[in-house]
Amino acid sequence: MQAPSLGGxxxxxxxxTTVVRLRQGSSLNDFADKIDANPAALVTVxxxxxxxxxxxxxxxxxxxxxxxxxxxxxxxxxSAEEEDRELLGAFDIDLEAEEAGESDEDQLPxxxxxxxxxxxxxxxxxxxxxxxxxxxxxxxxxxxxxHIGAYQIHHEHEGVDRAIxxxxxxxxxxxxxxxxxxxxxxxxxxxxxxxDDGVMPQTxxxxxxxQAAGVPIVVAxxxxxxxxxxxxxxxxxxxxxxxxxxxxxxxxxxxxxxAKPGIGIDDLVEAVLLTADASLxxxxxxxxxARGVAIEANLDRxxxxxxxxxxxxxxxxxxxxxxxxxxxxxVRAMIDEHGDTVDVATPARPVxxxxxxxxxxxxxxxxxxxxxxxxxxxxxxxxxxxxxxxxAKRRKRISLEDFDAELKKGKVESLNLILKGDVSGAVxxxxxxxxxxxxxxxxxxxxxxxxxxxxxxxxxxxxxxxxAVILGFNVKYGERVEELADREGVDVKFYSVIYQAIxxxxxxxxxxxxxEYEEVQLGTAEIREIFRSSKFGNIAGSIVRSGEIRRxxxxxxxxxxxxxxxxxxxxxxxxxxxxxxxxxxxFECGIGLGTFNNITEGDIxxxxxxxxxxxx
Length: 616
Ligand code: GDP
Prior knowledge:
Blueprint: E1 2-4, E2 10-12, E3 18-23, H1 28-35, H2 39-48, H3 61-71, E4 73-78, H4 80-89, H5 95-100, E5 108-109, E6 113-118, H6 124-133, H7 136-140, E7 150-157, E8 160-167, H8 172-180, E9 188-194, H9 201-212, E10 217-222, H10 231-239, E11 254-256, H11 265-279, E12 283-284, E13 291-300, E14 304-313, E15 316-317, E16 321-324, E17 327-335, E18 341-342, E19 344-345, E20 350-356, E21 365-369, H12 372-396, H13 403-408, E22 414-421, H14 424-436, E23 444-452, H15 457-466, E24 468-473, H16 481-488, E25 492-495, H17 498-512, E26 517-533, E27 537-550, E28 554-559, E29 562-569, E30 572-575, E31 578-579, E32 582-584, E33 588-592, E34 604-612
Parallel strand pairs: 3-4, 6-8, 6-9, 9-10, 10-11, 22-23, 22-24, 24-25
Antiparallel strand pairs: 1-2, 5-12, 7-8, 13-14, 13-21, 14-20, 15-19, 16-17, 16-21, 17-18, 17-20, 26-27, 26-34, 27-32, 27-33, 28-29, 28-34, 30-31, 30-33
Guanosine-5'-diphosphate (GDP) binds next to helix 6.
């Protein structure tokens, strides 16, 4: 159905329920394609809705939504995951159908994957070391291990040899970064709490993250060898967070350990296995092409792109064609945490893989493709999708500089900030000073997160979700965080002087205020004589009575104190025969008001302009 729309352009309309699916990062061209419309017509409709965009520019979901409502379409933006599912579907790869088609017998028990979390200095790194040393297999290698991002140990449990995989990056940053990318690799979390320090802010954060992910927690009460250690207090404190020890009638296992001297490590590993067996049924089908997650990756000078992948199902073999995120390649070699080469990797086994043509990101999923060509094509399609999504994001995120424009569009009414500093005193001082900036009630400054230390992936992830700007005071980016901020289009500003930060924020906030305008009179002229010209219309032979008359300025005509014509423009201005840009008080001139011809001798032409009232 064709119907006239705003601005008189013709666009095929939906009936209000017609669904149009658009990829993230789509442009008006893409939309026009789907509804068989002229892209230029959509540009016009959008313009009438108050937004300017070119036909090829990527637009965000809100903009498409508004356009959809106007034209009678329900716009569905396809999520990145969905899009990827469809992308794989085009290559006949359907991971969901694959799993659904597997029978119970296909699913064999697999080792649990464990992440160690907790407050800084409570002993996460030491504990990971101690657990690695406790491995019966590691002993055979003289205890020499390599950091590849994850390791597996073996432990005899009730007479059976059991494997457990540990993610070798302590802390919840890696955990949340992976979850933010949709990769849930962790089955069980070990929460480390120092018995001499008790529950601390990051302890609580770790609990929240694990509970949000539905991951069971085993509590390692560490440093019990230290004077002043109070393991009972830790148990009592954690009841507040729904972690009630078994000995108090709850169902969370608490194990007292000392990571440094290596006390209680076997009991902790035992508790992990008991918890896994009691609350999780961990199985996977090893007899198919491997699927999993990249947990760490970097560029090695000698070996090229190396990535540690965790196999989640299937079996990875040397020679397999793989795609990991936007990287692809053929598995040239695999090594384990002892530096030994391995030919196959089964579920829950981490291996370091060489042979990829580029470096994937931590949290990227990987899969084995039927052949090299398919692997390459999937990677290329993903790269294209990523580029498109990136362009859309770039436009959406806020930077201090484009704040003003966003506010004028009515898109933001508060400036969200994340503050990071080298010492807590500085962060507090900065926050205090920032919150004292007075810009009236129209805009609001919100500090949504503050902390001490480098700018982390967590900060960037948070800024992404809440469209916040990150301010770093005497701190730098953490490892690989700059890349992430860049990719996500998050604005990060660094300062070493508090006043500079305050000045910038104040300027941004003032820019956010909607400008107020006032009319300023520029000059008046009295009409002495009318010259009629067929070519230029009527020309008012005038004398400037006050101020000055400028070409192109706004004008009105007054007759005996009454306005007879308003919102006119001084379209031509002449001194004798010559064009003039301005004519000052006391001089004569010829004024042309375009098509407005209703003028007579004695009329006053008044010129004016709108000026922004400066903020004080
Ligand atoms: P992380 O920040 O949580 O990774 O903590 P670390 O593993 O780096 O440990 C922080 C500090 O606590 C280091 O100086 C460790 O040597 C010390 N530490 C860790 N575990 C123990 C323990 O069981 N007993 C004692 N006495 N010190 C420990």
